[in-house]
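Hi F.,

I've been meaning to write this up properly since the lab meeting, where we talked about keeping a consistent format for the predictions we share between groups. The idea is simple: the sequence comes first, exactly as it goes in, then the structure tokens exactly as they come out, then a line or two of notes. No screenshots and no reformatting. I'm using this chain as the first example so we have something concrete to point to.
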Amino acid sequence: MEGVEKLRFDTEGILAPLENTGRRFFVACGLLLAVIAWGGYAYAQQLIHGLSVTGLNRPVNWGTYIGNFVFFVSISLAGTLISAILRLIHAEWRRPITRCAEVITVLSLLFAVVNIGTDMGRPDRLLNCILHGQFRSPIMWDVLSINSYLAASILYLYLPLIPDMAILRDRPTGRWRWLYRILAIGYCGTEKQHKWLERIVSVMAILIIPIGISVHTVTAWLFATTVQPVWHSTIYGPFFVVGALYTGTAVLVIIMALLRWGLGLKSILKDVHFNNLGLVLMAEGLLVAYFLLCMYLVEITGAEPHIMKVVMSEIKGAFAVPFWLMILVGILFPPLFLSMRRARTVGGCVFAAAIVVAAMWIERFLIVVPTLTQPRLPWREGVYAPSWVEWSITAACLAAFALLYMLFTKVFPIISLWEMQEGIEHGMSKVRRRHEGYLPERLEKEKS
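Output, unedited:
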């Protein structure tokens, strides 16, 4: 296995966090830990006093926590699909961003589970899903699919890490060498080992795509298999998948920009990566707009009374302001903005991505709450507003997500060293051979 000193690209920004810890890192950790501590205090109040400290009530028994759950699950999809699909189609520009995306998947799934436990009020009862679960319930489908997805995502993150662990293990100095030695599992970079690793990674890339899609489809079925107005829709499965791609791609763009700025990776995370992801984000935004149009057009033209009560509460009722902000600013504006070539700069893509993330969190909130405020049973209309406890726990989850991502960059290279090296050594020749398979032969051969 070649050492780091033989790698044919600048690894300073990639390896710097593993070797040195600057003041900015400790300041950021301190701020994030303060937010997490406040969230911990809020959660302690919830454990002591029960869910009465939240805005949850009858009939609105799902709220911010379930919205957060759907939001975090949606973030996970783009991390996996962008990495897996780009790997399978041999897109050479994927190499610097695959690990960034794969880490997002694992962490977002962890916090999706955290929000489910928080919403239960009694987290000790999570074990009942395993001990007394009934597979007639979509909740058990979700438990099985999320755990399968999490296990597959961890494996998919770990496998491409093995060559990097071997590279860092063989360095003469450095922290965490004992950990790298364990995780490298004897990998030496022989041709046979490399071929087997690539085969296994390719198989995992194929398997994880249907697993990821199934998770978001099953999450949609938690709503769609009820008889609640608006939720009971056949379009919810594909709509959740497309919305997840839109949200996850936006989060990936923001994290890549932070890594580029914080670690000095301008020479690796280049403008072309943001331009390409901007195009992906634009296409996903148009798909989300199409699905929303289909969904609301059918609901409005159907004019079923229970459904119209929910729809009207969003269009001109209590939820009108967040609804129109989500539609006009978060769904329609980013694709139009990113359609302009000049807008697909690093700053422009981050600006659009930040709008998308905020809008899609609102969209998740609007999926959950308005339907519950309009009960089908003879109840009066419900009212719901998140309490300081819910906002605090939500902020703590986001802060913990950021903190764990930062800690990952302190232990493992966030850019795949071996994939970058492989791209430099073999990428151009592979692309040339692949193109020669479908391009016409040169006329020079005929002339000679």
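Notes:
DSSP finds 17 helices and no strands in the chain.
The longest helix spans residues 191-224.

If this format works for you, I'll send the rest the same way.

G.
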